[in-house]
Automatic annotation (TrEMBL):
Top-level taxon: Bacteria
Region (Disordered): 1-20
Signal peptide from the UniProt entry: none
Keyword Iron: yes
Naturally occurring in which organism (per UniProt): Amycolatopsis jiangsuensis
Lineage, uppermost ranks: Bacteria, Bacillati, Actinomycetota, Actinomycetes, Pseudonocardiales
Pfam families per record: AAA_16 (PF13191)
PANTHER family from the UniProt entry: ATPASE DOMAIN-CONTAINING PROTEIN (PTHR34301:SF8), DNA-BINDING PROTEIN-RELATED (PTHR34301)
Boundaries of every Cytochrome c domain copy: 168-357
Metal-binding recorded as keyword: yes
Record's protein name: Cytochrome c domain-containing protein
GO MF terms, alphabetically ordered: electron transfer activity; heme binding; metal ion binding
Length: 396
């Protein structure tokens, strides 16, 4: 089959040709947008799930929905080695520019930009030399005495309040989307929760939409005890069989091609219903098929090619980040779970390796910081990447 017409699109954060199985989340966000725009109280939203289930894609779709409704919207990706202030400033700058198109009072927009600039300038250390200080590209003079205390929690509440009021002027709202939210630094998490709490009490039209790994609720609750009531959590999981079939069939049919039922069965078996894997195996099956329709033999021929690509780009890139001690821990997890997507007991890992649990804590904690594993519940540890255990056993 013509590889140029191949509709499948495996890629980090790349929107698939058919966004199947996410109708509930999209409809729920429509309700959030409408309620907030009408001044109704609404909680911010956090999407959680393993890697490869489409959280980043869904986050991008929610941003597009907000923009189509005339909202200001900005998106950032949190990083464990970076403070929130600088990327947040850039995201809100984008959101304010979205709102400025509709606002009839340029002076009002400039005033909020001045507050944003004052907030952003605090990203530079007080003792930094002039040449090393970051200068945000905000075309407005910095305001004095607003969002510039240097305390991220105080400043964020004031900034969110002013940006939300600007959105209220034009009858819309602001959506701040944060990917990899579990990588925020503790002080930034605390400040974000406090700001969301303040906004929820005042009914201000600004919502935060975060996306991260399954342990995000624990990260947020460790920062502020009220966070479990502050956010609405939506678990994003692999697709069921019906939605997985739609994700395969719809793009193929749009290309006026076909796939045999047995081939659909085989694609679901190898992908496990995970959206990223559906795209990877679907693309390989299309390229392997000499004729239309795609057959089960085509899927079988294509599977090793897809697995080889996943081993390098999806699994291998993460495995290479682990130290020898961390790799030993990962392999022990894989062997204990026999390559299944299940949690392993931390005590069981210690027994399996013949080590004291305390001696393994540094490796486990480092793997968690690198986003390779997460604590499913107390005393349990699991891979953040589906099929990672199977990959490790095959590699071994």
């Amino acid at each position: 089959m013509d590889p140029i017409r191949n509709p499948f699109a495996p890629g980090a954060g790349q929107r698939p040709p058919e966004l199947a199985g996410r109708e509930r989340e999209l409809k729920a966000f429509e309700v959030v947008l409408e309620r907030v725009a009408r001044g109704r109280p609404e909680r911010s939203l956090v999407l959680t799930g393993l890697r490869g289930v489409g959280k980043t894609v869904l986050l991008g779709e929610l941003r597009s929905m907000a923009v189509r409704r005339g909202w200001g919207a900005g998106k950032i990706e949190a990083r464990p080695d970076a403070e929130l202030r600088r990327p947040l400033s850039a995201a809100l700058h984008r959101a304010i520019r979205d709102l400025a198109v509709r606002h009839r009072a340029p002076d009002r927009v400039e005033a909020v930009l001045g507050v944003l600039k004052a907030f952003a300038l605090k990203a530079s250390k007080p003792d930094a030399k002039l040449r090393d200080r970051w200068q945000p590209g905000i075309d407005a003079p910095a305001t004095q005495g607003r969002a510039d205390s240097g305390d991220i929690e105080i400043d964020l509440v004031e900034l969110f309040t002013d940006v939300a009021e600007l959105a209220a002027d034009v009858g819309t709202g602001v959506a701040l989307l944060i990917d990899e939210i579990q990588d925020l630094q503790p002080d930034d998490v605390s400040a974000l929760c406090a700001a969301c709490h303040e906004l929820s009490q005042s009914g201000a039209p600004l919502v935060v939409v975060g996306a991260g790994l399954p342990h995000v609720p624990a990260v947020l609750s460790a920062s502020k005890s009220y966070s479990e009531r502050l956010f609405r959590y939506a678990r994003i999981d692999r697709l069921d069989r019906a939605d997985a079939d739609v994700a395969v069939l719809a793009p193929i049919e749009r290309e006026e091609a076909g796939i045999e039922p047995e081939a659909l069965d085989a694609l679901f078996d190898v992908s496990g219903g995970y959206p990223y894997f559906i795209q990877a195996y679907g693309k390989a099956a299309w390229d392997a098929a000499p004729d239309d329709p795609i057959t089960v033999k085509d899927v079988q021929v294509a599977a090793p090619e897809a697995e080889s690509e996943l081993a390098v780009g999806f699994f291998g890139s993460r495995y290479e980040r682990a130290t020898p001690a961390e790799r030993e821990y990962l392999l022990a997890m894989a062997e204990l779970t026999q390559g299944r997507d299940e949690a392993a007991g931390t005590a069981d890992v210690a027994v399996y390796l013949g080590r004291k649990p305390s001696s393994l804590s540094p490796a486990r904690d480092s793997l968690m910081k690198k986003g390779l594993v997460y604590s499913a519940e107390r005393g349990q540890i699991a891979f953040t990447v589906p099929h990672f255990g199977h990959y490790l056993l095959g590699r071994d």
